């Protein structure tokens, strides 16, 4: 059985990363080729595993592969075990499939970067860690992948670290994610205390016996972790800064895969969320708030990557919302995660292609009319655009529609928010589309937009095809529902009005969004951003998330640190030195030591030893 | 008389120290080679002992000879799971420090060879401390370790080294004095019960009255808390580590300070189990303060070496917390932590030392953009930093997580607050990395050379172990286990059973 070789999925990119990062300059010439080959091999193997799995009955598709005992301490035993099941295989295919395309694209995108080999090393490290994250069968092992992708993200956001902004953004991403890690750490500790294990199988079996307080706490801890990794409110602030990384990184890590790990974590922990309404509701609220917040931020950004990053936050908010709805939403959360992986990777790479032709300018106010010089980029971007808007028959139509339906079935307010989000999405995406590809050209005279080389456009074309056809996972006989049901369960939801009416309403709202954007942005767009209304400024400043963090955490933290440093130098040390002075004028002797009478130490040792002897004898004689 | 394995381990570096000093002053290189040779042979021997211990258990290595009959003092050595781990750490770090510090001692107050001889002397005494099974012998060796360390700090290092060395000495002596009082007290108790004996095995059988036990405990604990060092007895460490050469700092923080936490397990828990349990609430709070206070101060430092020293104060807080959580995860985690911290801090100090020796400054503000000119140096620095912040996948993660989980199972509030330490750790490491290694290349950095082969050679084993034991920590965890079980039994505590035990069938 080849599922026993599942570890190869992780090992191949891990070994490749090691070769590229340790091999140094010797691997410069062919590093990018090896780096690209690794995810392709994992993808091919993933496809084999997938078809094997399909050959089994729906209840026999989960296989655990125990590699070795990681450690055992007291009654706790943690195994290095992988779980390959219908849920993890979908992630494997997404990560390695989209990952391979982005590696290929990067060959062209990073061609002139002297550190391209290292870039591929980091990308491979990411692929290996991400695969470990989704294949691990124990929460503690998930943590290893979880932090591994965080490290890769740190290294890649800061890839151009000679720029201060990139280095700062990288550090911020890591530190904010560490706040989320508090949640994951506490969750695993609680699992050890509750179940004596953090293996999925044990936790799933024990979850229903857990008190509601503990279930809620576990759910909230896991949600905190998910918020960090998936840039959900209140830990969203790092994602927009993360756009400092090279664009393929934004596509792979900060759109298609890593940032969706939080959704994976929640869905994977469904057994816990099923016994706690409070934590599930918290997930829904976080998702809804982020879906709207991200969309609003997306409306105000002139930086094409930041507009897309706001959109990513928002779309993951939708997935989170769906995951919080329980069995009615799990499948659609994952479904949307997959289609989003296609169309958002497509659009990010498209943005990269535009930047490639525009001397790395990211400001959409300097674009305009690019549909003519960049025909392929334009056409493929348009596919992504139609998909994220949810225009039938593009992939996003099926996945997002289902989430809005399920939201309405659960709660009208949440449903209305989801619907409103769809309208805002239509607005900001149309805005991006118009500012970039339509209108008059606004680029400077020394910029000569051109289409990217084939190594970059082919991945775009494939991703565009997936943006169009990805919906087949659902409309072809609800395949994804049947596929995932044995793992995460499924319940039909019942929206207040028929599905068809829901769809028509959603499309109408989307149409409104488009129309508003067209009315506003069909005219000439100034090269410099106008001051804008308070609302625009609010959105431009990321809803004052950073300002809040700075005021509440950073500043007080800095004051605290400075005060403590001062106290430690003056206070604690001074106090002890002062005490020393009190006790027999040690400070005077201290000065004498400094003048070089080192030998006197030997003397004091002799005295000390003599003291021991005397003391012992005295006791013995008494 | 048969010479036992442990005696051999102890003698070998000692003989090496003398041999190194006997080499004529003009042949400094030969002296260094002799020293390195002895440390490598000691390492090989230690490996043989460790493998033997793993296979056959502790009996083969116990040695007991009467030393001073009147006091009941013995020359008694032996190994347990905690001791062997620290002996291995000592034997491992010594040659690594020598290779990394190959040229660091040429401008010291004393000859270059004496630096290497003192290192060997320290190795011999440390091995003795970690394997002594007689309290009197332990005390003598414990105090004796101060001598080589005093000369290593005071003889080689920064301009304030004399001040730092004396401060180190005074703090340690003060702690030692209190321990001495307790050592004498133990003798009294032992003598009253019959024939006096300082053997651990005999002392454990004593029936000590509650008050006496608590006083004796406090004497030992104070000495160990100064050594470990715990807040508020910590201020000597940043001075010492800031002034000493990086190699000395590794020996100080990586090995010598572990005597404190080692002593807490073997002597505080071992001899005074009831008093240890009695002191638990206070000690845990002190440990928690150390974790957070050390980390916050590390964030605020402007000097690379002092920063690393403060990170260690935070790490030692974790170790003490794990010990006094009195759970098998906590104790195992703490023991493993001692080993892993030795590896990660050694890597951090040594790479920082490489950096500082190139630029001639330890001020963070004097650096910037190093990654651009010396990528291997920057890469190893980041790696060491990541292992110090306990990145999952690297060995320190497992020990830190065990400590936290072990604490969590009994003391939820303390553990939850301590988890904040992982965010602070990310801050102090990554801020330092960002300020020194990234951004535009600063003046004075343009011509910085990347690591040479010798420097890489010293770091490589640490990197391999940190990754290797992160993926496969089982051998070390298994070696520690029996000692932890014994200590738990001695203190009379058992782990809390899971609230909802899930049996195999239910899975």
From TrEMBL, chain A:
Against InterPro entries, the record matches this protein to: NADHpl_OxRdtase_5_subgr (IPR018393), ND/Mrp_TM (IPR001750), NU5C-like (IPR003945), Proton_antipo_N (IPR001516)
GO CC terms of this entry: endomembrane system; membrane
- Keywords recorded for this protein, A-Z: Membrane, Transmembrane, Transmembrane helix
Q: Does the keyword Transmembrane apply?
A: yes
Q: Domain NADH-Ubiquinone oxidoreductase (complex I) chain 5 N-terminal, which positions? A: 70-120
- Residues annotated as transmembrane: 33-53, 89-107, 119-137, 182-203, 209-228, 249-267, 279-300, 376-398, 413-434, 455-477, 497-519, 601-621
A GO biological process of this protein is: ATP synthesis coupled electron transport
Q: Where is this protein localized, as stated in its record?
A: Endomembrane system; Membrane
Q: Which Pfam families match?
A: Proton_antipo_M, Proton_antipo_N
Q: Where in the numbering of this chain does the NADH:quinone oxidoreductase/Mrp antiporter transmembrane domain appear?
A: 136-425
Membrane topology field: Multi-pass membrane protein
- GO-annotated molecular function: NADH dehydrogenase (ubiquinone) activity; NADH dehydrogenase activity
In terms of PANTHER family, this protein maps to: NADH-UBIQUINONE OXIDOREDUCTASE CHAIN 5
Q: What is this protein called?
A: NADH-quinone oxidoreductase subunit L
Identify the species of origin.
Kribbella sindirgiensis
Record lineage: Bacteria, Bacillati, Actinomycetota, Actinomycetes, Propionibacteriales
TrEMBL record, chain B:
According to the record, the segments passing through the membrane are: 6-23, 35-53, 73-102, 114-130, 136-156, 168-189, 215-237, 278-300, 307-326, 338-356, 376-394, 414-433, 453-472
GO molecular function terms listed in the Swiss-Prot or TrEMBL record? NADH dehydrogenase (ubiquinone) activity; NADH dehydrogenase activity; ubiquinone binding
Which NCBIfam families does the entry link to? NDH_I_M, PRK05846.1-4
**Could you identify this protein by its name?**
NADH-quinone oxidoreductase subunit M
List GO BP terms, alphabetically.
Answer: ATP synthesis coupled electron transport; electron transport coupled proton transport
Q: What EC numbers are recorded for this enzyme?
A: 1.6.5.11
| InterPro entries per the UniProt record, alphabetical | NADH_Q_OxRdtase_chainM/4, NADH_UbQ_OxRdtase, ND/Mrp_TM
Major place of localization? membrane
Q: How does it sit in the membrane?
A: Multi-pass membrane protein
Could you list this entry's UniProt keywords, alphabetically sorted.
Answer: Membrane, Oxidoreductase, Transmembrane, Transmembrane helix
Pfam families (alphabetical): Proton_antipo_M
Q: Name one GO cellular component term.
A: membrane
- What is the enzyme's main class? oxidoreductase
User: Which protein family is it in?
Assistant: Belongs to the complex I subunit 4 family.
Q: What is the lineage of its organism?
A: Bacteria, Bacillati, Actinomycetota, Actinomycetes, Propionibacteriales
**Residue stretches making up the NADH:quinone oxidoreductase/Mrp antiporter transmembrane domain:** 132-424
Spell out the subcellular localization from the entry.
Endomembrane system; Membrane
